[in-house]
Amino acid sequence: MKILLVNPIREGRGQSAVRFMNSTPLALPILKALTPDDIEVKIVDENIESLNFDETFDLVGVTVMLHVSQRAIEIASEYRKRGTQVVFGGFFPTLWPDKALPHVDAIVSGEAEYVWRDVIEDAKTRSLKKIYRASQMADLKDVPFISKDFYTEQESYHVETTRGCPYHCDYCSVTTFYGNKFRHREVDDVVKQVAECNDRFIFFVDDNITANPKYAKQVFKEIAPLNISWSGQFSINFAKDGELLDLAAESGCKMLFAGLETLNSDCLNEVGKEWAVPSKYPEFIQRVHDRNIGVYGSFMFGFENDTKDVFKQTLDFCEENQVDLALFGAMYPLEGSNTYKKLKEEGRLFEGNSKKFNGQYSTYIPKNMTPEELDEGLRWLWKQYYSKKSIKNRLSNYLGNGDILSEGRTSTSQLMIALNMAFKAAVVDF
Ligand code: B12
Ligand code: SF4
Question: Domains in the chain, ordered, with CATH?
Answer without folding.
Answer: 2-133 (3.40.50.280), 156-426 (3.80.30.20)
